[in-house]
Amino acid sequence: MRKAIVFGAAALAIVGAGAASFAEPVNDELVIDGETKIITRAKAPEGSPFEEVTSGWLYRTKETRALEADSFENPGMLYVERGEEIWNMAAGAAGKSCAECHGDASESMKGVGAHYPKWNAEAGKPFNLELQINACREANMKAEPYKFDAPDQKALVTYIKNQSLGTPVAIDLDAGEMRAWWEKGKEAYYTRMGQLNLSCASCHEQNNGKYIRADHLSQGNTNGFPTYRLKQANMVSLHNRFRGCIRDTRAAQPKAFSDVLMALEVYVAWRGTGLSVETPAVRQ
Ligand code: HEC
Ligand code: HEC
């Protein structure tokens, strides 16, 4: 309770008087293992409120940035390894593994994660990787869909996204009804909510670069998800992060994969167009 009040005051302080400190994101280059160059600054897509989109990595401390630059040090890599195990493991009544149909993920899944969420004509809605994996489990493996944030779900999504490490985020808004979902996501992004009466934009757009307690506010891009959060010592999925940000405004949290969070995922992924996939990113 006490923590909540302190956070509330801090949130109001950044959005209110403007007394909070400000710092530009750092000028630093991210090259993972000295090999894979990561695009952490990109020209914003047309219609963006920013001129340049910036990765959340540029807002983290030197130590946190270093963890992400070295895959032996990055704790998120354990989830990539676990994801690879699951990929090769038979499950469900059909007795099939992902690998049996999709082969070597480093080939079949290369670049795939950079283009999610993606229109799914059969479902008539955008799919993120979690929903696509569940669809494959149900239809192709005769297995139970994963429950939201099941450890195996997070590991598999992390593994698949990691096959796109370095690939720029680009989602296809021309497919199906993606533009209507983008619009719905945009509306949600700018809608003030909760007792603190804040929108996503209040923090990540108007106060981008300011500090909220010890947190340096980034643009809130999605290119690093699932991310390894040091605070939680765990992988955090995107919808978990969305729900956490919404909780911090004191609003009721929508369910994971609900239409509003799927619409937000479409819109917020688009805001980060051109940034490399960083999964598993390391954040505070
Ligand atoms: C029996 C074969 C089969 C199995 C087993 C299977 N899939 Fe699939 N998967 C498909 C087919 C066919 C498609 C393309 C059509 C569709 O969307 O259903 C697909 C599509 C996908 C896609 C979307 C690719 C893209 O380019 O957007 C992903 C991601 C995926 N599967 C992941 C998995 C994972 C992870 C598993 C294991 C948990 C798995 N699949 C198990 C057959 C399979
Ligand atoms: C009260 C301020 C606040 C509000 C409102 C808020 N966030 Fe956040 N958000 C944060 C903070 C603090 C962080 C962690 C530091 C950072 O990356 O900005 C964060 C992180 C994120 C991240 C992870 C960025 C990364 O690089 O790992 C995403 C994505 C995100 N927010 C999306 C949203 C969305 C979508 C909304 C609206 C539903 C929202 N946020 C509302 C404060 C807020």
UniProtKB/TrEMBL annotation:
Heme c 2 binds at residues 200, 203-204, 245. Substrate binds at residue 241. Keywords: Electron transport, Heme, Iron, Metal-binding, Periplasm, Signal, Transferase, Transport. The keyword Glycosyltransferase does not apply. It is an enzyme of class 2 (transferase). Its cofactor is heme. Residues 78-164 form the Cytochrome c domain. Binds 2 heme groups per subunit. The active site is at 245 (cysteine persulfide intermediate). One of its GO terms (biological process) is sulfur oxidation. The keyword Flavoprotein does not apply. It is found in: Periplasm. Its EC number is 2.8.5.2. Its main location: periplasm. GO terms for cellular component: cytochrome complex; periplasmic space. GO terms for molecular function: electron transfer activity; heme binding; metal ion binding; oxidoreductase activity, acting on a sulfur group of donors, cytochrome as acceptor; transferase activity. It catalyses: L-cysteinyl-[SoxY protein] + thiosulfate + 2 Fe(III)-[cytochrome c] = S-sulfosulfanyl-L-cysteinyl-[SoxY protein] + 2 Fe(II)-[cytochrome c] + 2 H(+); S-sulfanyl-L-cysteinyl-[SoxY protein] + thiosulfate + 2 Fe(III)-[cytochrome c] = S-(2-sulfodisulfanyl)-L-cysteinyl-[SoxY protein] + 2 Fe(II)-[cytochrome c] + 2 H(+). Heme c 1 binds at residues 98, 101-102, 136. Heterodimer of SoxA and SoxX. Belongs to the SoxA family. This is SoxAX cytochrome complex subunit A. It comes from Breoghania corrubedonensis.
